């Protein structure tokens, strides 16, 4: 199934049926349109959003090893991970760590997302302590 939309850590959205690039004005129009169709006020959307905190870490890794490392992480976290779209997402209760190999740099990015900054930092630090091959 083709993607309807995509987003990245900066909050930028892509709507490929319109333009295969980030477009903040179009994204704002789509959100406004959705809220209007549902007769939903923007301030209610904001009030209902949970507070999430992110801790981003990057693991330097040669381009030739990214696939091997990602496969080993999938094996290691198979029971706690159930999403493998554009990387893997490891769940820790109500918190999670998306692990995404960069398509532009020789790194794997870890984005720990949690209900507090302290938990997000602890999750990303625990993942960084893993021994990743570097050559």
Helix/sheet category: alpha+beta
Low-confidence stretches: none
The CATH C-level name of the largest domain is: Alpha Beta
Beta-strand residue percentage: 25-35%
Query: How large is the count of helical segments?
Result: 4
Order of helices and strands: EEEHHEHEEEEH
The count of strands amounts to: 8
Short summary:
By secondary structure, the protein is α+β, with helices and mostly antiparallel strands. The chain has helices spanning 24-37, 42-48, 66-76, 117-128, and strands at 6-7, 13-15, 19-22, 53-60, 81-83, 88-92, 95-101, 107-114.
How would you sum up this structure, described in words?
This protein has 135 residues and is of the alpha+beta class. It has two domains: 6-48, no CATH class; 53-128, TATA-Binding Protein. The protein contains four helices and eight strands, in the order E-E-E-H-H-E-H-E-E-E-E-H. The chain has helices spanning 24-37, 42-48, 66-76, 117-128, and strands at residues 6-7, 13-15, 19-22, 53-60, 81-83, 88-92, 95-101, 107-114. A five-stranded antiparallel sheet has the order 4-8-7-6-5. Strands 1-2-3 form a three-stranded antiparallel sheet, with helices on one face. The longest helix has 14 residues, at 24-37. It is globular and about 50 Å long.
Structural key phrases:
alpha+beta; 135 residues; 8 strands; TATA-Binding Protein; three-stranded antiparallel β-sheet; five-stranded antiparallel β-sheet
Task: Furnish the topology, listing elements before pairings.
Blueprint: E1 6-7, E2 13-15, E3 19-22, H1 24-37, H2 42-48, E4 53-60, H3 66-76, E5 81-83, E6 88-92, E7 95-101, E8 107-114, H4 117-128
Antiparallel strand pairs: 1-2, 2-3, 4-8, 5-6, 6-7, 7-8
């Amino acid at each position: 199934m083709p993607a309807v939309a995509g987003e990245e850590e900066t909050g930028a959205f892509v709507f490929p049926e319109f333009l295969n690039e980030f477009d903040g004005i179009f994204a704002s129009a789509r959100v406004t349109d959705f809220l209007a169709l549902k007769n939903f006020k923007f301030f209610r959307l904001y009030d209902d959003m949970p507070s999430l905190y992110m801790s981003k870490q990057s693991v330097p890794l040669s381009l030739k090893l990214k696939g091997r490392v990602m496969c080993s992480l999938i094996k290691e976290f198979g029971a706690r991970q159930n999403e493998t779209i554009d990387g893997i997402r490891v769940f820790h209760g109500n918190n999670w760590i998306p692990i995404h190999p960069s398509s532009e740099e020789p790194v794997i990015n870890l984005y720990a997302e949690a209900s507090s900054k302290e938990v997000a930092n602890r999750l990303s630090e625990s993942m960084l302590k893993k021994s990743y091959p570097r050559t």
